[in-house]
């Protein structure tokens, strides 16, 4: 009997968050990956891979954030990932929070752009991440996040 590879949901916002997620692709080789992000245009970056999109929202639009949260719940229920990884921002926070409730393993990698302090989403996601990482050694602290190097 052939065992299927574990399912990984890789979720991020657009821009730099998406670029950082793409840089992690080699680490996903043993997984069945579904990429989830905020623009259908990004599907071209992962040809041949499972790709889904959700709406984009920021903390300044609470109604749209609730829509995004609902879309993420739906995706998690449909995909049933074993592992969820995010490079941020709001969509990743929601994904980790809900995935944890569903029993998935969770990983948060805070953006390299957050040099002085963790992102707001990263600070909030830390409590739901089994592996909570920063890309800056001076931001690592007891209880997380941890520093093991940068994506760049």
Structure explained in plain terms:
This protein is an alpha/beta fold. 29% of the residues lie in helices and 22% in strands. It is built from 4 helices and 7 strands. Strands 3-2-1-4-5-6-7 form a 7-stranded parallel β-sheet. Helix 3 links the parallel strand 4 (83-88) and strand 5. Helix 2 packs across helix 3. The radius of gyration is 15 Å and the shape is globular. 36% of the residues are buried. The mean pLDDT is 94. InterPro entries: Oligosacch_biosynth_Alg14.
Number of strands: 7
Q: Assign the CATH class.
A: Alpha Beta
Largest sheet: 7 strands, parallel
Low-confidence stretches: none
- Strand order in the largest sheet: 3-2-1-4-5-6-7
Chain-averaged pLDDT = 94
CATH fold label: Rossmann fold
| End-to-end separation | 39 Å
Secondary-structure element string: EHEEHEHEHEE
Q: What fraction strand?
A: 15-25%
The number of distinct structural domains comes to 1
Query: What portion of residues is helical?
Result: 25-40%
Number of helices: 4
Radius of gyration: 15 Å
What general outline do the C-alpha atoms trace? globular
CATH superfamily: Glycogen Phosphorylase B
CATH architecture: 3-Layer(aba) Sandwich
Organism: Candidatus Thiomargarita nelsonii
Protein name: UDP-N-acetylglucosamine--LPS N-acetylglucosamine transferase
InterPro entries: Oligosacch_biosynth_Alg14
Pfam families: Alg14
């Amino acid at each position: 009997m052939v065992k299927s590879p574990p399912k990984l949901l890789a979720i991020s916002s657009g821009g730099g968050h998406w670029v950082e997620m793409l840089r992690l692709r080699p680490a996903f080789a043993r997984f069945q990956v579904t990429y989830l992000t905020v623009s259908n245009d990004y599907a071209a970056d992962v040809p041949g891979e499972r790709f889904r999109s959700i709406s984009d929202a920021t903390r300044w639009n609470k109604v749209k954030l609730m829509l995004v949260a609902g879309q993420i719940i739906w995706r998690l229920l449909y995909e049933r990932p074993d592992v969820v990884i995010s490079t941020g921002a709001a969509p990743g926070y929601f994904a980790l929070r809900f995935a944890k409730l569903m029993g998935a393993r969770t990983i948060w990698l805070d953006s390299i752009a957050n040099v002085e302090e963790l992102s707001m989403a990263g600070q909030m996601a830390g409590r739901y991440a089994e592996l909570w990482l920063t890309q800056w050694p001076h931001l690592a602290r007891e209880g997380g996040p941890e520093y093991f190097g940068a994506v760049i």
